[in-house]
Amino acid sequence: EIKQGFLAQKHAQVAAKNLKVLMVGERESKMATYWPHSAIAIVSLGRKDAVAQLPFMTTIGCVPGLIKSRDLFVGKTRKQMGLEPDVAHA
Questions:
Q1: Which of 8, 42, 75, 81 is the most buried (most CB within 10 A)?
Q2: pLDDT (tens digit, 9 = 90+) per residue, 22-38?
Q3: pTM greater than 0.85 (yes/no)
Q4: Is 3 helix (H, G, I), strand (E, B) or coil?
């Protein structure tokens, strides 16, 4: 599995769940299993364009750029962590 932040978050969620199972003394059979995900990558090429690698195709241009270039997923990640999604720039 390729190393990406969003995959690390999914892996960490499974690990945290398993730690909770062990901490409360439940059986190991109740532990969750982490399954690798398909390789998906989006690389920004400036503010409007990007390259997207999906399991079934690779594409370049403004469509993948619309997915990522706006805030590079920073707002989404901050929101998942319980922080304000918008950061004021100085």
A1: 42
A2: 999 988 888 999 888 77
A3: no
A4: coil
72 pLDDT exceeds 70?
Answer: no
- The residue type at 25: G
Angle at 62 between CA 57 and CA 65, to 5 degrees: 80
DSSP string covering 13-53: HHHHHHHHHHHTT--GGG----------EEEE-SSS-EEEE
Write the Ramachandran bin of 24: left for phi over 0, alpha for psi from -120 to 50, otherwise beta.
alpha
Quote the CA–CA distance of 46 and 68 in Å, as a whole number: 10
> What residue ranges do the domains of the chain occupy?
1-36, 38-84
Q: Where residue 15 falls among pLDDT bands split at 50, 70, 90?
A: very high
